Amino acid sequence: MIINLFSVGLADLSITSNDEVGSQVKEYIETNFIGTTVEIISVTAGSGIYEIEMNLQNQQGSQKIISYVNKDVDLLFPSAIELVSSENDATNTPSTPAQPSADIVKSDKPVVELFVMSHCPFGTQVEKGILPVADLLKDKIDFEIKFVNYAMHGEKEVNEEMRQVCIQEEQNDKYFKYLWSFLESDDYAKALKDANIDETKLGTCVEKLDSDYTITELLEDESTWQGGQFPQFNVHDAENQKYGVRGSPTLVINGEQVSSARDPASLLANICAAFNNAPDECNEELSSTSPASGFGLDGAGAASAATCG
User: Fold this and answer.
1) What is the pTM of this model?
2) How far is 272 from 279, CA to CA, in rounded Å?
């Protein structure tokens, strides 16, 4: 059984050989993920799938991954998890939450900053994992979602990130409700209504934010794009520079980057490890199943370290 981190349609491909599988996947990724180059290392026909080993490279560096295409050739899965044991006994047992990092900086009230891109499938995955934690700990932590200083998903991402910055700044008590709705449907208009956002107030804030950071101007002037590929989004640029943020998602606790699995239980464990004296809420049991990547609130995904960046 395959669990996808995110999936993209390949239904238009016409495959007759392993070599064609590799070349068509290479063409599809390089066309739809601008700035990424693909080196196909091997293609192997397996049980109901093609296994593809490839090297992906962009301005941030290179990464070797193994991905899969189903035999109907209508889905590409960048990762898979085997859910059946060698004795063929199926299991749906959630993974054990990862142990918190031993060197997390401690404080009385941890500052938790999650850097994402609003349409990055791995960023949305962590958001779905961390929102139950933030809702549980409430004002015992200083929590904020911030944005990577460049956008990989076009104008819609730039506009969405401006909306979310303003909602957090001016209508913060409605932000979680807005974000849950947005994560479910990728429909900001519905999310605005679901959260009862004051859209007049929001519009004024977005207009000022855009002017202060020349966001639309930078979007329209491709000569300013980072690496010539992605428009700048500089609202949280100072924090990006300070913490060395290189992609979405990046979790920072008390000023230091922290690696964590993406399920609520693991995220809770890492954040609670940052307290000088952890509150009772840290003893609560949250789900140890990683949310699915991308949009939608159903399903589960892999606790992968994959990022957009």
Assistant:
1) 0.71
2) 8
